Amino acid sequence: MIIGIPREIKPAEARVAMTPEGVRAVCIHGHEVLVETRAGVGSGFTDDDYQHAGARMMQAAAEVWSNVDMIVKVKEPMSAEYPLMREGLFVFTYLHLAADRKLTDELLRHKVTGIGYETIELPDGSLPLLIPMSEVAGRLSVQMGSWSLEAPNGGRGILLSGVSGVAQGRVLVLGAGTVGKNAVRIAMGIGARVVVIDRDPNKLRYLDDIYQGRLVTLVGNAANIEDELSNADLVIGAVLLAGAKAPRLINRDHLKKMKTGSVIVDVSIDQGGIAETSKPTTHDDPTYVVDGVVHYCVANMPGAVPGTSTLAMTNATLPYIIEIADAGPFEAAHRDPGLARGFNTHAGQVTHAGVAEAFDLPLAPLTE
C-alpha cells in the first residue's frame, strides 16, 4: 500500500500524522510512504529525518493526495483539500463528522472511505485513538483556563491555586471520561476546589476513591449543573458521545447566572460543544466573550503542544495503520470489529450510526 502524509493546513496546527520512526516501521512492512515537505517541522522532525526513515518527499500536497491509496492525517480535511479527494481514496484521521455537515457531504460526494480515529472502539467501550489526545486536551484545559482567567485575557483575575489567606478558584468539570479525569488531575494538582459532574456513578466513585474525598462528585442532572455553574470560576466541557454530537448542557440563560469574567473551556467543541454559545476558535484567536463569560473553544487544543501530541498520537495510531496496510482496509475491518467502527463513510454512504443520526441521513452498515 502507498500511504500519504500531507502537511496539516488547519490554522496553528503543527502536529504531523506520523513520526519518522513510524514511517520506518511502515516501510519495514513493505509499504511506501509519501511525505509532503516540511510536514514534520512543527513537531521537530526534518525532511531529512523522513528520508532517512525511508519516505519519499513530495513538494506539494496534490502530489501526495493523487499518488496514494490512503491519506493519514491529524485533523479533518480542510476546504482547500476537498478538490484533492477522489473516489476510492481512504482517509484515516480525526474526522468528527457529527459536527461537520459540509465535510460529511464532501466525503460522500467524492465517494471517499473516511475512517475516523475518534470512532474506533474496543469491546469495553474505550476509544484507543482518542485517549492520547484526550489526555493532552484534558491537561491543557486547566492550563488554558487559567490563562483565560487572567485579567489581561478577559477573565475575572482569579488564581486557581489561591494564596495564603485567599480562597482557591472553583473548577467545574462536566464529564468524568478521559478528558475529565485529566482535567481533574491538573486542577487538583494546582490546589483548586474541584467539582466533577457525570451521569455514570462508577466514574464518580473512581474519582472519589482516587482523591479520597478531596473533590466533590455529583450525578449529572440539570439541577446540579445549574447550581454549580453559578459558583464556578472555570467550567471545563469534557463530554463525549462516540461519533455523535455533544449534548448541550449549558444554554444562553445559564450564562446570566455565571460570574462575570468566568471561563468556559469547551473541549467538546470538536463534536459541536456542550454550550449553546460555543463556536470553534483557533490558537491564533482562542477566546471570545458572551454575556460576560469568556469562551475558549479551540478545536485542536493538542496542536498547542505538537512535540508531545505527535509522539502520543503515533504511539496509538501506528498499529492500526500497519494493520490496514498489511491486510487491506476491509479485511482489517473484518478481522477487527473495533476498527470497523471507525468507518464513517464509504462509497457515497454513511456507515456510522452517530453520523447518520446527526444529519438524518440513511445508514448503510459496513457489513452490508
Radius of gyration: 21 Å
The biggest beta sheet, please? 8 strands, mixed
Number of helices: 13
Low-confidence stretches are: none
Mean pLDDT: 96
Strand content: 15-25%
The CATH architecture category of the largest domain equals 3-Layer(aba) Sandwich
Number-wise, the strands total 15
Please bin the fraction of helical residues. Answer: 25-40%
CATH superfamily of the largest domain: NAD(P)-binding Rossmann-like Domain
Query: How would you write the strand order of the largest sheet?
Result: 3-2-1-4-5-6-14-15
The quaternary structure here is single chain
Query: Terminal Cα separation, in Å?
Result: 24 Å
Give your account of this protein's structure.
- By secondary structure, the protein is of the alpha/beta class.
- It has two domains: 2-120 and 307-359, Rossmann fold; 131-304, Rossmann fold.
- It is 34% helix and 16% strand.
- The protein has helices spanning 20-28, 47-53, 61-66, 101-109, 131-149, 178-189, 201-210, 222-229, 252-255, 306-327, 329-335, 337-340, 353-359, and strands at residues 2-5, 32-36, 56-58, 70-72, 90-93, 113-116, 170-174, 193-198, 216-219, 234-237, 263-266, 287-290, 293-296, 343-346, 349-350.
- An eight-stranded mixed beta sheet has the order 3-2-1-4-5-6-14-15, sandwiched between helices. A seven-stranded mixed beta sheet has the order 9-8-7-10-11-13-12, with helices on both faces.
- α1 runs parallel beside α2 and α5 (131-149) packs across α6.
- It starts with a strand and ends in a 9-residue tail after the last helix.
